[in-house]
Amino acid sequence: MAKYDEEIRKTLPYYEDFYKQVDRFLSNLKIFYKPAVAAAGIMDRKEAGMKREIRTVVYDEDLQIEAYRFEGFVRPFPGHFHEYYVIGYIESGQRALTCKNQEYAVRPGHILIFNPGDSHACVQSDGGSLDYRGFNISRDVMLSLLGELDNNQDLPVFSQNVIFDSETASCLRTLHDLVLSGSREGDKRENLLLLTALLVQKYGQPLPCCIPRYSEEIQRVCRFIQQNHSKRICLDQLCSCAGLSRSTLLRAFTRLKGVTPYRYLENVRVGQAKKLLEQGVPPIEAALQTGFSDQSHFTNYFDRFLGLSPGAYRNIFSRKK
Q1: How far apart are CA 95 and CA 316, in angstroms?
Q2: What domains sit in the chain, N to C, each tagged with a CATH number?
Q3: Residue 151: is its pLDDT beyond 80?
Q4: Where are the beta strands (DSSP E) in 17-171?
Q5: Can you give the pLDDT at residue 148?
Q6: Angle at alpha carbon of residue 57, lines to 47 and 285, rounded to 5°
């Protein structure tokens, strides 16, 4: 026993030194914990910011256009397109935007212009949030505006997707404030006509004359999707419709449309669902009529593409009735 105690006493210095090293190591670990605490604090603030996210959508019956306002928006928008013109303005925040296979760094003061069918996607790039305002203008309304301006040209194709133009931005912001405030003043339509004239005169151009390879085949596929969007569609059906192999179809379609055939189908379905919701159709029925497997799937896509739920979108039009 005495021999055993003696051996323990001999090893004590070793263990004392060992525990001192452990204490120093743990002390140093605190340095590594601090960034984690800071990161958690930032995450909390981001979560709080997401809860303060404000989305405002107004349909103006006089002008027949939709006005959007997103504040504190942080979520990305996946690749998608619209069947109407989108004219937007960045109030604050910076985003990485991809449109028609071109990349842009958009920042406050930039005007965004998307033609019908322009595929685009964006994600926040500054660690902050997006403050954005914009208009959705249908093809029919655009033609009507051109008629009022004594402009006999066909639907315009805007040559630039991202512009910096203080004159046009001032007109856009003034009109947006009038629409969101519910103004019934006559200058509201004058502002819309002025905005249209500025955009068409400065950035409008004729339809492109060049026809990309496989353009006719891809257009045939698009018509097939539009006519059968409520049904189950597989890639082999699209290949048969186009007369192209899988690899050729996928490459050509994505190059010409900016999205895959499946994403194009989802966009068509969302666009058709919007029309049903505007007529007061319940979201679950709109989902089933447009080919979505269930309401959850439908709500997910609708919110990702448009920034608000199907029910919230339907309420905009039910209130006006």
Answers
A1: 28
A2: 54-205 (2.60.120.10), 215-320 (1.10.10.60)
A3: no
A4: 54-60, 65-73, 77-80, 85-92, 95-99, 102-106, 111-114, 120-124, 130-137, 157-158, 162-163
A5: 84
A6: 95
